[in-house]
Amino acid sequence: MARFYRGRDCVAWLEDIGHYDLPVDEHPEGPEVARREPNHYVTGRDGGHDIDLRAHALDGLKLHGRLQQVRGETLSFSGDLRENLDHADATAERIKDTIDQWIEAQGIDAPPEPRYEPVWEPDGDGSAELDLAAAGVRSIVWATGFRSDWSWVEAPGFTRDGYPCHARGVCEVPGLYVLGLPWLYTWGSARFAGVARDAEHVAERIAELALIPEAVSGKSSTRRATRSGASTWGQ
């Protein structure tokens, strides 16, 4: 994603458009796809600028396709480099289309900006067999992201396909709640912009379960359920 477009930070444009407020069940590709999509990458370093892999290639960075296999000191890369670069560019341009449509619909006076033109094209498809020793590579930094591990939560039916079974943070397993996950409810759920709303929702559900009127109605009194089924009140 471009860092800036038409005189403004792209994240600010998307915030105004309501992009981060889109509920996961309204995502055009559905919740399961949305929750597994990678985020767009941007940087705020030195005031913010684009992260353009093609520009990095011009500066001498050697790009390959997806890493498929490691055998001893040899790395095997697939031939999907060009496809991945084109897909990334298309995503960035699609975001700009959305911003353009918003600017026109709202009648905003924003300076026009020429669209991105690829500054570099790969010679081949990115497939390669790389001998680390022959290439003089002595260090590897793995930057492949991460996958959630919920195995420590010993509760039956807590996850489905490795993702917690929940509705806006309220799990199907009674008494369990989650917060801060990508697309917990909206795209903003894993960001400061949206986590507070999800936290309020979860807190209200916990309060209702615990029968604490203070949290749901603003009253100063609280009630605590006892094992015998009776209730106690306090100030």
Describe this protein's structure.
The chain folds into two domains: 4-135, no CATH class; 159-230, no CATH class. α1 packs across α4 (81-106). β6 and β7 form a beta hairpin. Helices cover 31% and strands 14% of the residues. The protein is of the alpha+beta class. The longest helix is centred in the middle third of the chain and has 26 residues, at 81-106. The protein starts with a strand and ends with a strand. Mean pLDDT is 87; it is low at 215-235. The strands form five sheets. A three-stranded antiparallel beta sheet has the order 3-4-5. Strands 1-2 form a two-stranded antiparallel sheet.
Quickly describe the structure.
Helix content is 31%, strand content 14%. The chain is α+β, with helices and mostly antiparallel strands and 235 residues long.
Annotate the secondary structure layout.
Layout: E1 4-5, E2 8-9, H1 10-17, H2 31-34, H3 53-58, E3 67-71, E4 74-77, H4 81-106, E5 128-131, H5 132-135, E6 159-160, E7 163-164, E8 166-167, E9 170-171, H6 192-210, H7 213-217, E10 222-225, E11 231-234
Antiparallel strand pairs: 1-2, 3-4, 4-5, 6-7, 8-9, 10-11
Helix pairs in contact: 1-4
